[in-house]
Amino acid sequence: PPIRLAKIDCDDPKNEPIMVKYGIKGFPTLKVFRHGNDEEYHGGKTTQSIVDYMKRVRTMAITELEDVESAKTLIQDSGVTAVAFIADREGTEWASFNLTWTTMMTKYFFAATS
Fold first, then answer.
1. pTM as predicted
2. Contact call for residues 40 and 31 (beta carbons, < 8 A)
3. Residue 106's CB: how many other CB atoms inside 10 A?
């Protein structure tokens, strides 16, 4: 399904109720709406960072890191918060990481490597 983006002019007084409702105090503020809930976007501000984030949220995937350079690039570009170094994807460590990701995936980026 397509990802929809909307822009609101918060300098226009008629949009003040929206600012109050969603706690918008500074600019730019980016919000992600999923299942009727809003969460503030904390990733990079480049077009590519935003597009990558939205694709990741839509597909709900943990980014698989292939090497150190891909890890450095991802962390620099998207502000990865959690990286798991777990070889056994069937064990309890992976289950714990996956549970954390499931509950926090819209607030933080997650990546994994073995």
1. 0.46
2. yes
3. 19
